[in-house]
Amino acid sequence: MIQGHAHPVIGAAIRERYEKGTHFAAPTEDSVVVAEELKRRWQIPQWRYTNSGSEATMDAIRIARAYTGREPVMKIFGSYHGHHDSVMVSIAGEYEEIGEPDALVSVPYGAGIPRSTVDLTFAVPYNDARSMEHRIEKPTKEGSKPACVIMEASPMNMRLILPEPGYLEAVREITERHGVILIFDEVKTGLTLAAGGAVERFGVRPDMVTLAKTLGGGFPLGAVGGSEDVMSVVKDGSVYQVGTYNGNPLGMAAARSSLTDVLTPDAYRHVERLNDRLIGACNKVLDEFGLPGYSLGLGAKGCVTFAAEKVTDYRSFQANRDTDLSRLFWLYCFNRGVFTAPNRDQEWTLSVTHTEQAVDAYASALHDLAADLAPA
Ligand code: PMP
User: Fold this and answer.
1) 269-305 confidence digits (pLDDT tens)
2) Atom in ligand 1 nearest the alpha carbon of residue 220
3) What are the names of the required cofactors (predicted)?
């Protein structure tokens, strides 16, 4: 989360909320203020709340299915959208089992997922609009086009991959032409790539957006947004989108204070300046010592990808990444007091409380690693 830990403004909002009560099974004013703010940032008018990213993607898919009357779901090879059945298909580590992108077979990730659900989900490679169109046109076993394409505009669990020029525009055009709902899963990209997430950053407008993580500033909160037309299936009661803790007062207080008082234009300028500094410093070390890899990022997000070739999709990530170097770098960071996500496929998120010293410590760990590995 871009707010950092224990931000005093969020802490004060949470304490104030706690004093007033934390559960009424009815919305608080904060949920309206947050929805208005999300509408302003995303130019998407209608929002519903959840408690997690998984719930947000689950609800988005159900809404897309209800709206289109179709059942299949298309996703991107290697992507992660949470732990519910429809998306626990073809995620990291199983590409080889799936075979070629054209193969009409999907593989569940883990036990306990019904085959009938897995069969409704299929995947195509990232950065490949032709494969997407091909699969949309090719009838599934059920003979139906997908209800939706759910994707991260910029995938974040294979380190960080950027869209090639024209890719997202092509995805938008193809999905629109086939009446397929385009869902940008912005659980990670939302509020981090820019104030208005990937939609603002890349200028491509999906039909629906899912949010979580940074939105709650450390509290469990997710959201799903869409046009009035698509969200009408919730409004008219045909999709039951509910939950005891949906829009819970603590999460909403954290989101309200984050959006109105913490994630200001200055905050984004701060993290972007630090991100440029960090990416530049990492690339300098990689170049200087000839380590196989590169650093890139956008907004508050970035990474060092240790790979012989540039990674453009899950397959090239699997084929080229150097897992030994990644593991070693994680340890070099850890031993120098820099704690990054234990899952080494993840990107970094800079926060409003990070400083130049903090990002320099990360680059300096990379320098130590490169120097130790350099031939004597
Ligand atoms: N979508 C994306 C893109 C994610 O990265 C994640 C979590 N890593 C999720 C959905 C699921 O979110 P949660 O863990 O809050 O259920």
Assistant:
1) 999 999 999 999 999 999 999 999 999 999 999 999 9
2) 15
3) pyridoxal 5'-phosphate
Whether residue 41 is found in the same domain as residue 167: yes
Total domain count, the chain: 2
Q: Burial-class residue 229 by CB neighbours within 10 Å (0-12, 13-18, 19+).
A: exposed
For tokens 């505009």, the residue is: 153
Cα distances from 56 to residues 36, 117, 313, in angstroms, run: 18, 18, 24
| β-pair partners for 305 | 294
Pocket of ligand 1 (CB under 6 A): 52-54, 57, 80-82, 152, 185, 187-188, 212
Residue 324: CATH number of its domain: 3.90.1150.10
Report yes or no on 296 lying in a domain: yes
pTM (global) more than 0.80: yes
Got the DSSP string for 193-213?
TSTTHHHHHH----SEEEE-G
Residue 2 covered by a domain = no
CA–CA gap between residue 338 and residue 283 (Å, rounded): 18
- Please write the tens of the pLDDT for every residue from 22-35: 999 899 999 999 99
Tokens describing residue 71: 């059942």
185 tagged catalytic: yes
Query: Are 231 and 338 contained in the same domain?
Result: no
213 CA to middle of ligand 1, Å? 8
Domain at 255, CATH number: 3.40.640.10
- Domain end, chosen from 227, 262, 297, is at 262
Q: What is 236-304 written as a DSSP string?
A: TSSS----TTTT-HHHHHHHHHIIIIIS-HHHHHHHHHHHHHHHHHHHHHHHHHT-S-EEEEETTEEEE
Q: Is 102 a catalytic residue?
A: no
Judge if 276 and 146 occupy the same domain.
Answer: no
Instruction: Tell me: do 246 and 278 sit in the same domain.
Output: no
